[in-house]
Design goal:
Layout: E1 14-17, E2 26-27, H1 47-56, E3 61-63, H2 76-85, E4 89-94, H3 101-110, E5 114-118, H4 124-130, E6 131-132, H5 136-153, E7 159-165, H6 174-184, E8 188-192, H7 208-217, H8 225-242, E9 245-247, H9 261-264, E10 265-268, E11 273-275, E12 289-290, H10 296-300, H11 303-312, H12 319-322
Parallel strand pairs: 1-3, 1-10, 3-4, 4-5, 5-7, 7-8, 8-9
Antiparallel strand pairs: 2-6, 10-11, 11-12
């Protein structure tokens, strides 16, 4: 273990834990597409590391997701049970390709607080071009099955939110998706921008492909901004009378600052590396500690975290934050 920690902020009540780095899809906007595949057993967070985390940190909200697909983790049920048994609000985001009727009922019965489903198109052509390896009809059927399981079991949870990553190639599908979700009975549709512009990375390095993809698809540039606003407005007109909650992102860069992630929460990779937030995407960009060598408290209060907080709270933030859409208020 490292030396005793210095004084820091209180331990966070929110953790985002990548319970697996393995995924069954190769989505165009995700780093997974541009990296070698990960075996689902090799990519799974060890249960003992997970239990140690929830023992060490006074968690009240736990997000079980990262770059991988949570339903691929063989330990997901016991992780949910551990969280629910301790009164922790727990949920995750899924591509829903593996969300069979049986699994949907199990998740409803587990006490899961929320389940977010990625759905980036209103039909197969657009959606399947983005979520390579997925079937639109299967995912929509699985989503409808989850809604049905909630009703049949008389459960108010999990809260079902569909997440739509808005890009130039799919933003015109947004109103149609709102109509579809209203018919299914989904609780909420959240529209978000791409997470990062990767401008802090080497243009010819390992992040070249995702950096170039983002430059061509991001809606925060001037191109297509008015068309995106029009689609957002049309989706709002569809959602309101149907009782579908809708959230859309800002399109104009409002300047950076006021990010509280490193004071309020932390992101932990499946290998036990601690990062400042979930938006970094890539454990070689910034790592503040390793749970295989130190306790969470030692990392949280350590000099690397303290230095990161000082810089983030200054006029000279870390390079990895400058291109973050959450930091720039466009997420």
């Amino acid at each position: 273990m490292d030396h005793a920690p210095v004084t820091g902020p209180p331990l966070p009540e929110h953790l985002q834990v990548e319970i697996t780095s393995a995924c069954n899809l190769r989505c165009t906007m995700c780093l997974v597409r541009y990296r070698p595949p990960v075996n689902k057993l090799a990519g799974a967070m060890r249960p003992e590391l997970f239990r140690r985390l929830v023992d060490e940190v006074p968690v009240r909200r736990l997000t079980l997701q990262g770059l991988g697909e949570p339903l691929l983790s063989p330990y997901l049920p016991e992780m949910i049970a551990t969280a629910v048994g301790r009164g922790i609000r727990v949920g995750f985001n899924s591509n829903a390709t593996l969300l069979t009727g049986r699994r949907a009922r199990e998740l409803v019965e587990s006490g899961l607080d929320w389940l977010h489903v990625s759905l980036d198109g209103a039909g197969p052509a657009v959606y399947e071009a983005i979520r390579e390896g997925a079937s639109f009809d299967r995912v929509v059927g699985n989503l409808a099955g989850l809604v049905r399981a909630k009703r049949e079991l008389g459960s108010a949870t999990p809260w079902i939110r569909v997440v739509f990553v808005a890009m130039r190639d799919n933003v015109a599908d947004l109103p149609g998706l709102a109509r579809l979700l209203a018919r299914i009975g989904v609780d909420e549709l959240r529209v978000q921008n791409l997470s990062h512009d990767f401008a802090d990375t080497d243009p010819a390095g390992a992040y070249r492909e995702i950096r170039e993809f983002t430059a061509g698809q991001a809606l925060w540039s001037d191109q297509d901004t008015e068309r995106a606003r029009s689609m957002f407005a049309e989706a709002a007109r569809v959602a309101a009378p149907a009782g579908l909650r809708l959230r859309v992102p800002a399109l104009a860069d409002e300047g950076g600052g006021n990010c509280t992630w490193p004071w309020d929460a932390a992101y932990v990779t499946s290998a036990g590396l601690v990062q400042p937030c979930c938006m970094v995407m890539g454990d070689d960009r910034v790592v503040l500690g390793d749970l295989n060598r130190s306790s969470f408290a030692e990392i949280w209060c350590g000099e690397a975290y303290q230095d990161f907080r000082r810089r983030l709270d200054s006029a000279d933030p870390p390079d990895v934050c400058r291109g973050c859409s959450l930091y720039r208020h466009t997420f």
